[in-house]
């Protein structure tokens, strides 16, 4: 009887640990999904701003009458 009771306690402890780990995993997954959701919103807003900035820079480059000469880095050390 005592041996069966001890085995049952071990099984109960293993089940409680498995449930605890499952709750922990579920919590981490939920937190990850929330973080991803908010970061997606933030990045979407930032990309809209960056897109406008990039268009302004491209317009300035197109309007530039004296384009800058690019440096050839292979000849830089010579």
By DSSP, the count of extended strands is 0
The portion of residues assigned to helices is over 70%
How many strands, what sense, and barrel or not for the largest sheet? none
Low-confidence stretches: none
Mean pLDDT: 78
The multimeric state of the shown protein is single chain
SS-based structural class? mainly alpha
Give the count of helical stretches.
Answer: 1
Tell me the β content: under 5%
Radius of gyration: 31 Å
Shape: rod-shaped
Whole-Å distance between the termini?
Answer: 90 Å
Please provide the ordered H/E string of secondary-structure elements: H
Model description:
- This protein is mainly alpha-helical.
- The chain is built from one helix and no strands.
- The chain has one helix spanning 2-63.
- The N and C termini lie far apart (90 Å).
- The relative contact order is 0.05.
What's the gist of this structure?
It is built from 1 helix and no strands. It has one helix at 2-63. It starts with a helix and ends in a 15-residue tail after the last helix.
List the helices and strands and how they pair.
Elements: H1 2-63
Main features:
mainly alpha; 78 residues; 1 helix
């Amino acid at each position: 009887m005592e041996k069966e009771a001890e085995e049952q306690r071990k099984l109960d402890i293993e089940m409680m640990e498995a449930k605890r780990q499952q709750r922990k995993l579920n919590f981490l997954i939920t937190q990850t999904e929330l973080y991803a959701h908010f970061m997606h919103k933030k990045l979407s807003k930032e990309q809209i701003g960056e897109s406008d900035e990039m268009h302004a820079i491209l317009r300035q480059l197109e309007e530039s009458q004296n384009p800058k000469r690019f440096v050839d880095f292979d000849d830089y050390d010579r």
